[in-house]
Amino acid sequence: MKVEAAKRRSAMHRLAGVACLLAGILAFVPGPSLAAETDVPTASIPADVSPLVAYSGRVAGDDARTRLILDFDKRPEISVHYVANPYRILIDLPDTVFALKKDDVAARGLFSDIRYGGMAAGRSRIVLTADRPASVVASEVRKEEGGTGYRLVVDTAIVTEDAFAKLLSGQSWKDAAAVAESRPVLPGAAADDGGTFVIAVDAGHGGIDNGAQGAATGTHEKAVTLDFARELTSALNASPATKAVLTRDKDEFLSLSQRVQLARNQGANLLISIHADTLRQKDIRGATVYTISDKASDSLAANLAARENLSDEIAGMPLQGEPAEVADILIDLTRRETQAFSISLAKEVVGAFEGEVKLINNPHRHAGFRVLTAPDVPSVLLELGFLSNKDDEKLLLDPAWQKKVAGLIAEAVQRYRSAVMANGG
């Protein structure tokens, strides 16, 4: 046992040392700013702190031309951008409350999917996804006659591939945002002095990205994950010398890379990402713990990872490149160390759940989840259950069940900590 403990402490020291070196190198490696992924020109966003309210809307047209109409309580200021693969029109707005009925702006005509929601930092977005290249050909805001509201009318039409390519190359919003060098900060958190065990608790989805939807209640996954993440944070913070922090503490969108960077910026010792997905097989239920791997353990894990990795695409984010080649060797080294610790944590969580929480068959699985790619932070993705299963959904919405499961995870984290960080490791 002493030999094994010594091996664990040695591994942790190697991981810490390589992580520090990696951080130093990455600080000098040019790469895309996280702000570049979501920022739009600030001149298009009014300073009014009171959010807009979109209270009704409709979509009409065919597969050549489609009109989007939205009614607001105040005059909206919009900016329009385009993203390829798939073809998307992004309509950016100031902070907006979408008080729309489910079918008000259902996808039709040119558009195979229409999503809307918050993008953080006082911004909201509408994402129009098309099967063919399309663009906005006209837009206007009309004041409601005899009333106080305003109507936004956006006309779209198909364009050629060449025309769409010109729209992509001609827009300047990404360039304008790229000059910002700010990095995200965990809400309400201060940098740790190194003497505390830090856990980043990541509530999956948020803002424009609703995630899965409950079979019985229609509850969005983003609400389930945030409720549970808050409960888990409280349970973890009850442990001595432990600080748990949320990557998001409200209904806002964070890109997958932002979630990873938030954990790293805080010096997190662990990242736990919370999810509650849906499956076509509604009889499948139970919790699953995922770790990262280049090769998926099975088709269920592969399909789930593919869906979760679409989060940025859903929000209209351009795909970002991998870190510069100069850091690849160090990243690979730290990933090997980190993956071993991630697997250790996953086993502790599965062990804590056995006999207490319903588990899926083979509850520890692995796949290429982008949210688990921090090279120096052991990370797991926890599927609490499946919102497609009514029994799971009922438990997921039960505060007493959430409290119980959060307590079990907190105990598992403490056992993990004791095993790999004993004696100041």
Task: List descriptors.
single chain, 425 residues, alpha/beta, Aminopeptidase, Immunoglobulin-like, 2 domains, six-stranded mixed beta sheet, five-stranded mixed beta sheet, 15 strands, disordered N terminus
Question: What does this entry look like structurally?
Answer:
The chain is of the alpha/beta class. The chain folds into two domains: 2-34 and 180-424, Aminopeptidase (3-Layer(aba) Sandwich), CATH 3.40.630.40; 42-178, Sandwich (Immunoglobulin-like), CATH 2.60.40. Helix content is 34%, strand content 26%. It is built from eleven helices and 15 strands. The chain has helices at 2-28, 35-38, 161-170, 173-178, 221-237, 256-265, 299-308, 311-314, 328-353, 390-396, 399-420, and strands at residues 52-61, 65-72, 79-83, 87-94, 96-98, 111-120, 123-130, 134-143, 150-158, 197-203, 242-246, 270-275, 287-292, 359-367, 379-383. A six-stranded mixed β-sheet has the order 11-10-12-15-13-14, sandwiched between helices. The model is unreliable at 1-10, 12-47, 175-183 and 321-327 (pLDDT under 50). It comes from Mycoplana azooxidifex. Residues 260-414 form the MurNAc-LAA domain. This is N-acetylmuramoyl-L-alanine amidase. Its EC number is 3.5.1.28. It is an enzyme of class 3 (hydrolase).
Which CATH architecture of the largest domain would you pick? 3-Layer(aba) Sandwich
Average pLDDT, all residues: 82
H and E order: HHEEEEEEEEEHHEHEHEEHHHEEHH
Percentage of residues in helical conformation: 25-40%
Number of separate domains: 2
